[in-house]
Amino acid sequence: MATGLDLFIRKGYASTKISDIAQHAGMSVGLLFHYFESKEKLLDELVTTGISNAMSIMVPTDIEPLHFFENTVKQTFHEIRNRTFNAKMFVLMNQVLYNEATPQSIKDKAESFNAFAPSIQMIKKGQAIGTIRKGDPHALAVAFWCALSSIATEVALYPDTPCPECEWIVDILRKK
Questions:
Q1: pLDDT average, residue stretch 43-63
Q2: Which residues of 77-98 are buried (b: 16+ CB within 10 A; e: fewer)?
Q3: Which residues of 146-168 are buried (b: 16+ CB within 10 A; e: fewer)?
Q4: Rounded Cα gap, residues 122 and 124, in angstroms
């Protein structure tokens, strides 16, 4: 899976051949087919993994909203620094959504996960208690998640990139 992930984000889904994945993984194409019956099934499994990782962050909680977002940034930065697979998943999930070569069933699966909806609710809650700035909750969620995703993408593609301070990202939401 790690080899497929790396090739998909570097070459793109359409340009990656099953033989490329097998070669880079150090196995025969036949053995790779033992694990995944097609390149599409491998991509589907990667997207399933990406969604389950992302959903683990978005579990409903009673924690104060700003603390939730602080914890989310800390956890995400820890993951992308210590597990390159997770950083690369940010790249893949964005490519899956926007690449025309992505099979529609996989694109639909990726679109089924929406980090914005639960974030919007948390932002509204934070605005009501006065810890999160005023403004359109959807726009604030977009700003927060796009910043986090872009940083993860940069770290995935350029591992020596320094992560910003967690507070800088949370400041997108923090009431001043």
A1: 82
A2: bebbeeebbbbbbbbbbbbbee
A3: ebbbebbbbbbeeeeeebeebee
A4: 5
Among candidate residues 26, 72, 25, 32, the one with its CA nearest the CA of residue 53: 72
Q: At what angle do helices 65-82 and 137-157 cross, to 10 degrees?
A: 10
pLDDT reading at 5 higher than 70: yes
Distance separating alpha carbons of residues 154 and 50, to the nearest angstrom: 17
User: Taking the model in full, what pTM does it have?
Assistant: 0.83
